[in-house]
Design brief:
The protein is α/β, with parallel strands linked by helices and 486 residues long. It folds into two domains: 275 residues, Aldehyde Dehydrogenase, Chain A, domain 1 (3-Layer(aba) Sandwich); 174 residues, Aldehyde Dehydrogenase, Chain A, domain 2. Helices cover 38% and strands 18% of the residues. The protein has 14 helices and 20 strands.
């Protein structure tokens, strides 16, 4: 089966009529069946891994091992969300029985989350499987019961089309309604989708400029819609003086591995590293990346942006270049630079993310001044703290928690577990919202609450009926009741 591919604005109305009809049908389909759709897509992708990975290698220059692992992550998150749909707590079903004797008297109120409707998801360049056609955004929207139109990334067009065919075939074979899934290509079509009245939400992973432009379209519509953009993230790392004294070499080695992983093209790459004055982390990190082989970046455009960004960074007054990032026919090599905290604070351009294998070391003398500087940073997806055991870092944890969506204690942020507890989001410009784009809670982006007051039991959604036919966890009269206790 060939997926529907939208390349002309003239085709949108018909395609979105189909998506709107599918949205109505999906509301009547059981959670168990909808979970089956996700499992079917996961099984189809696993079966096609040997076909898909070579296409991805050709288009993205990523390694076979990396891409094979990414397919496994993609199918794993599909299955996790399928399990979450079956478990049922994602519906957040709440029941407050009538209380005539209360002051004032309370009616019977029941609330549940329902799907928003058709969604447009924008695929990312740096994860051609996990954040692309069948990635986390698509999985979350389908789990919520929303039809999905995925805007393919131009950096892996052939892979997107083949993946879309596999997804469409799997959904059809599993019994999903016609119009549940489609692919779109081209900037003009993408912009028109965000503005189309049939689209009820959007999600995006990419640049600040591109995401902001789409976000502005979404919120300026006659009927504004939520737009969940994951944009820029510098991901600060703080090393205390005690940690530096105890394990500078170990920290430097971990840093070098993290900021060069995937040629520095992870949204969680540690881009700003705050170290105490006199730290030898810089020297150890420089040694760790010496002789690094050139790595091809995802697209020619990303490569040009990296070269330009490094040139601007290296020529900034006060910057000390420790290792020069080079651009060769085979790719780019990593760059490392250092600056004082005072210069960093007075140079806003240094605060911005530079996508690719480069990191900036910022030397500080006074921990109190460091905390003030951290408070001035824009939002990030992650913040990492390397401290000594037993060290009082309460103030650092507080400021880092204010500036990031995930705070790590030791370790490195370039790895995002797909779990119930994960939060992959953060203050602007990390994201345009308060919701995670990774993990089970990502489903919540594509739902809205509806309350039913004094409704007859037969007219209530199954999740809210008195006998709990779905057997799901619910909050009843203030108490959390497990499905088995109904």
């Amino acid at each position: 089966m060939t997926a529907v591919v939208l390349t002309d604005i003239a085709d949108l109305d018909l395609a979105l009529d189909r998506a709107t009809a599918a949205a109505r049908a999906l509301r009547t389909i059981s959670d168990a069946d909808r979970a089956g759709y996700l499992d079917a897509v996961a099984e189809a992708l696993d079966a096609a891994v040997d076909e898909l990975v070579p296409i991805a290698q050709r288009e993205t220059h990523l390694t076979e091992a990396r891409l094979t692992g990414e397919v496994a992550r993609t199918t794993g998150q599909l299955r996790l969300l399928a399990a979450a749909v079956r478990e049922g707590s994602y519906l957040e079903a709440v029941i407050d029985h009538a209380a005539p004797a209360a002051a004032p008297p309370r009616p019977d109120l029941r609330r549940v989350l329902i799907p928003l409707g058709p969604v447009v998801n924008f695929a990312a360049s740096n994860f051609p499987f996990a954040f692309s056609v069948a990635g986390g955004d698509t999985a979350a929207a389908l789990a919520a019961g929303c039809p999905v139109i995925v805007k393919a990334h131009s950096g892996h067009r052939d892979l997107s089309r083949r993946t879309a065919d596999i997804v469409a075939d799997a959904l059809a074979a599993a019994g999903a309604p016609d119009g549940t899934f489609a692919l779109a290509e081209g900037r003009e079509v993408a912009t028109a989708l965000v503005a189309h009245p049939a689209i009820k939400a959007g999600s995006f992973t990419g640049s600040v400029a591109g995401g902001r432009a789409l976000f502005d379209i979404a919120v300026r519509r006659p009927d504004p819609i939520p737009f969940y953009g994951e944009l820029g993230s510098a991901n600060p790392v703080v090393v205390t003086a005690a940690a530096d004294a105890a394990r500078a070499s170990e920290i430097a080695t971990g840093l070098a591995a993290s900021f060069t992983l995937g040629a520095g093209q992870f949204c969680t790459k540690p881009g700003l590293v705050f170290v105490p004055e006199g730290s030898v982390i810089a020297e150890h990190a420089r040694t760790a990346i010496e002789g690094a082989a050139p790595a091809r970046l995802l697209t020619d455009g990303i490569g040009r942006a990296f070269v330009d960004g490094w040139s601007a960074l290296a020529s900034t007054a006060g910057i000390e270049v420790l290792t020069v990032a080079t651009a060769e026919s085979e790719g780019v090599t990593p760059g490392l630079a250092r600056v004082t905290l005072d210069t960093f604070r007075s140079t806003p351009a240094l605060h911005e993310e530079l996508f690719g294998p480069v990191t900036l070391l910022i030397e500080y003398a006074d921990p109190a001044v460091l905390i003030a500087a951290l408070a001035e940073l824009e939002g990030s997806l992650t913040a990492t703290l390397h401290a000594a055991d037993g060290e009082d870092v309460t103030a650092l944890v507080e400021v880092l928690s204010e500036r990031a969506g995930r705070v790590l204690f030791g370790g490195w942020p370039t790895g995002v577990a797909v779990t119930w507890s994960q939060n992959h989001g953060g203050p602007w410009p990390a994201t345009t919202s308060l919701f995670t784009s990774v993990g089970v809670t990502g489903i919540r982006r594509f739902q809205r609450p509806v309350a039913f007051q004094d409704a007859p039991d037969t007219l209530l959604p199954p999740a809210l009926r008195e006998d709990n036919p779905l057997g799901i966890p619910r909050r009843v009269d203030g108490a959390l009741v497990q499905g088995a206790d109904r």
